[in-house]
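2024-03-11 09:14:02 INFO queue: dequeued item Aspartate aminotransferase, len=401
2024-03-11 09:14:02 INFO validating residues
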Amino acid sequence: DSIFSHVVLAPEDPILGVTVAYNKDPSPVKLNLGVGAYRTEEGKPLVLNVVRKAEQMLLNDRARVKEYLPIVGIADFNKLSAKLILGADSPAIQENRVTTVQCLSGTGSLRVGAEFMARHYHQKTIYIPQPTWGNHPKIFTLAGLSVKTYRYYDPTTRGLNFQGLLEDLGSAPSGSIVLLHACAHNPTGVDPTLQQWEQIRQLMRSKALLPFFDSAYQGFASGSLDQDAQSVRMFVADSGECFVAQSYAKNMGLYGERVGALSVVCKTADVASRIESQLKLVIRPMFSNPPIHGASIVATILKDSNMFREWTIELKAMADRIISMRKQLFDALRTRGTPGDWSHIIKQIGMFTFTGLNSKQVEFMTREYNIYMTSDGRISMAGLSSKTVSHLADAIHAAVT
Ligand code: PMP
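2024-03-11 09:14:37 INFO prediction written
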């Protein structure tokens, strides 16, 4: 008898489990709209041309070795990542008051930032939007923070509950940490307007609430890297402090390379370097030092102006295809005369549409139409194509009528 016979079978991850179920389905018309990974019009995963080119250059460089990186990763990668999110002309970077460490994609960056806060910040409570990416509460709880939520989404308008958000942040204890999605909020696809961001900023600064930005979709929402970074840059322009977790999973298609960065914007260069020394103490016992390959690809692309331009074009093409799928799905439902207001499909931003379909309707669509998505009714627009949109529209129509 095993000494582990008491171990119970854990449930599948609510998001990754959708793909597990999809893979088991033999139907030729099955559609996976669960996981947030980009697919081409042909439904295939995409490796960007500029990524292939960078990999070829790395392969040809015989001077490259496989030694350990420093604890904080590749110096060039870190500098370029900070410039990408904060802006090339950011005073905070010029004044050396930003420290950036390479981490294991967005997830790892969030975890390292949160563990630092649990050790060194006086407030241990982090407010996360309701709803949010399902991994957020687990990451922050395991890092040693206590998690509370602030109102974010209004199901009746399928838009932002701005009043509720202001009330909840307004009554949070001074100094609390606030998790903000930089753009393309997951799962709702609902972002504050720039005017609303400005109000959020003023409220947070007046109460000394500490912003922790999660930037998993820069460039993927609007097609413009600068536009998608505006929320973060507003909070840096006021000279206040903030944390930013960046992921290159979506915007460079480097999902499995696990490449990301954590930046801490500080008031002074001196504080920044002391924080960096402490981030090393968080990282060393967690994974010692980060992997080379993905970050080398990113650094190669970011530091060459031609490759950078090529990347922005490929990135915009991905964003545009997603935006066009929104339009096509909206039109297909209108053509069918599907009851209800579906304008949120074209109003929402980024990879996901929060359809408003309930778990019963989702179950029906999976059972009758072999369409897979999370039970909260979130669909990945990136998993849809002109060829599959009518199948989805048929399923939604049948589910609500
Ligand atoms: N934050 C949000 C909001 C996300 O949607 C994701 C990816 N699903 C991540 C962070 C992190 O992803 P990764 O660790 O793959 O970069």
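2024-03-11 09:14:37 INFO annotate: The chain has 16 helices and 13 strands.
2024-03-11 09:14:38 INFO item closed
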